[in-house]
Amino acid sequence: MLHIDEKRLLKVFQDKGKEILDINEVQLPKEKIMRVSLWLKGKNLLDIEEKKREKVKVVNKKPFPERKIANYLKEIGKNEIEIKELKNILDKEEINAALGAIKRKGIAKVEKGKIIFDNLDYYDEEEEILKRLEGKYLDELSEEEKKYLNILKKRGYLDIDEEKEIKLKLTEKGKELIKEPIVIEEEINQLNREIIISGKWRKAKIREYDIKAPTKEIYPAKLHPLTRIIREVKEILLSMGFKEVKSPLVETEFWNFDVLFEPQDHPAREMHDTFFLKYPCKGEVPKDLLERVKEVHLKYWRIFDKSVSERLILRTHTTAATIRYLASLEEDEKVKPHKVFCIDRVFRNEAIDYKHLPEFYQCDGIIMADNVNFNNLIGVLREFLKRLGFEKVRFRPAYFPFTEPSLEAEIYLENKGWLEILGAGIFRPELLEPLGIKKPVLAWGIGFSRLAMLKYGLTDIRDLHKNDLNWLRRV
Ligand SMILES: N[C@@H](Cc1ccccc1)C(=O)O
Predict the structure, then answer these.
(1) Residue 76 confidence (pLDDT) above 80
(2) Residue 399 maps to which CATH number?
(3) Which range marks the domain in which residue 465 is found?
(4) Ligand 1 pocket mutation pick from 255, 347, 402, 428 by most atoms within 8 angstroms of CB
(5) Which terminus of the chain is less hemmed in, N or C, by CB atoms within 10 Å?
(6) ipTM, interface predicted TM-score of the complex
(7) Which positions bind L-phenylalanine (predicted)?
């Protein structure tokens, strides 16, 4: 069944006896032609071919300044003029253009401050070509015309317009269809009271619905892909019984490193890995805990300086949030089990490239409970990754200053192989001791950007933040 507008369009082909039409040949509003063409394309009766073409447009219709000089001389009956007199007949900027063109084309001699013409009715190819170029398409120009095109563009006589050429082409099926005469009878789109009461509906042709008719795509508002992943991970962890915690973006080295048993001379603490605050550069550190942490550091690392602990930095990992949570527990809470996570931004002083940004998202989680062990950690991570959509997972031993034993989880991706996705382990007793925590604590941290890249098939992490509308509409 064809819609009346589809018939109208097909009839244009029939009446003109053509198989290909430029949309300018169809006497209907462009919007409508495009809509109807899409319908016909959906029915495999028509193909739409779009081509961008560049077209020459003459933007200055005045004669060239060199011609103005010649015309002027003809009028006053002379064949030469002093250059300094030119300002009487030309605009300032025209003078240089005229002199340049006269020399370039050899129209007249320029000598001793004078312009001398042999022939005031000189022939100028440039002028002839300018007349010819108007409205021509760039891809139809001859080599010579192209050469003049650039000159004339520079002289400000021409511009290039982009034009969209849309051709409608009947398919084989379409050609077959227009062999039969197309009869256009008025259809009723909508029944109304008058049509029903008068009984017109008995004879009228009522338009059928075509629920498969292609329509313009619409792009409803939606959340940014990164926000969606963050929410998805939150949902998963909440459903696994974890509670969300937060901690400051601006953090002391104490919470970011010391409490996590990272020695104060650890290379990760240096400027090239960590962002330091200039003002204020120092933060507050809890006295009692500092003393206990210091004791452990001196015992194992033989180095500890309070002024290092107090330095303010931008948090480099969200492990600072989970450790802060553990430290905040009151005595009566320490005997209970705890499962918390933190998803938030972290910062590292990295050069920006396809897989590094100085600011990115991490998610850390901990489980504190009696008798939990390395196997439980692997089990929980396996479940977490499975809920994220990664079925094939393997674990390898790893090293982190704050966990022992430690592991790295890798996921398997078709065509990519094994990819490292998270780090985990059991918090060291040296770290738990100053916090007064006696139960084992399983901990893990996962980078989000990596996850988002995998999920959305990106090869460059920067694409996640480019806000390219075409991409955002599709994902
Ligand atoms: N914080 C570590 C990840 C990690 C968290 C918790 C335990 C072990 C490792 C990182 O940023 O790489």
Answers:
(1) yes
(2) 3.30.930.10
(3) 226-474
(4) 402
(5) N
(6) 0.98
(7) 319, 402, 427
